[in-house]
Amino acid sequence: MQLGLSTAPGATLLQVSQSDVFSQIQNDALLSSSLWVNIALAGLSTLLFVYLARGVSTPRAKLIWAATLMIPLISLSSYTALVSGLTVGLIEMPAGHPLGGQEVLSQWGRYLTWALSTPMILLALGLLADVDRGSLFTVIVADIAMCVTGLAAALITSSYLLRWVFYLISCAFFAVVLYALLTEWADAATAAGAGEIFDTLRALTVVLWLGYPIVWALGVEGLALVQSVGVTSWAYSGLDVVAKYVFAYLLLRWVADNEGTVAAAGESTGGASPAAD
């Protein structure tokens, strides 16, 4: 997306008003719809999840519910910030990038969303699987680092090479998360009596989360094989819908129906139970 806005020689972050960016978003039906749809779904999901948790009474189940409820609430706030232009800006792509020298709309606020919402997903999964606190802490920190370095990859305009360096660093942190989900967390979930639902949620998470770096690489931020900001935004939004709202619904429905299993896991092990020392 290229705008006829002048910038000083060598400038990278373009000085445009928030209202200009807001108008740019609203005038692009594909882009704006990708944001408004998520705002609506996040709001509806929040109401649904509150309803699903009306009968939850044990501390461990309540903690899983609280972590899961944060997912749509964070998304609701974040997508509202995106559609308003608050967390969107124009950057000039560096030399060597397929769009080098062109002004591109960057939805950098998505990375802030992921840095806050994906730890809640992992916290809920870790509590469900009753993993030990050391592993839970390590995976959540790696996840946040993945999002922050992904943000760096998206915003660097001084060097096309360094964009990819940070992209690879982000992928390395992602590998830590994947390793835990595919190995030790799966074993812990089986021991906690939640193996079947964990396998479903793990498959959903792993497959969909792999989609994000693929979209980055193919979209305007990476190789720019897809140069439409609206198409890229819909790709991210579509992944968010399933990875967050569908994920959360499946988890909360299972917890509501199997609260005894959830409570027993926390009582019988010294893992991530809220009462563990």
TrEMBL record:
Topology relative to the membrane, per the entry? Multi-pass membrane protein
**Keywords for this entry?**
Chromophore, Membrane, Photoreceptor protein, Receptor, Retinal protein, Sensory transduction, Transmembrane, Transmembrane helix
Which molecular-function annotations from GO does this UniProt entry contain?
Answer: photoreceptor activity
Transmembrane parts of this sequence: 35-53, 65-91, 111-129, 136-158, 164-182, 203-227, 233-252
Location within or outside the cell: Membrane
Task: Give the primary localization class.
Answer: membrane
Q: Which GO terms describe its cellular component?
A: membrane
Q: What are the BP-aspect GO terms? A: phototransduction
The entry sums up its family as follows:
Belongs to the archaeal/bacterial/fungal opsin family.
Q: Output the PANTHER family linked to this UniProt entry.
A: BACTERIORHODOPSIN _OPSIN, NOPA (EUROFUNG), PTHR28286
| Name of the protein | Bacteriorhodopsin
The record lists the organism as: Halobaculum marinum
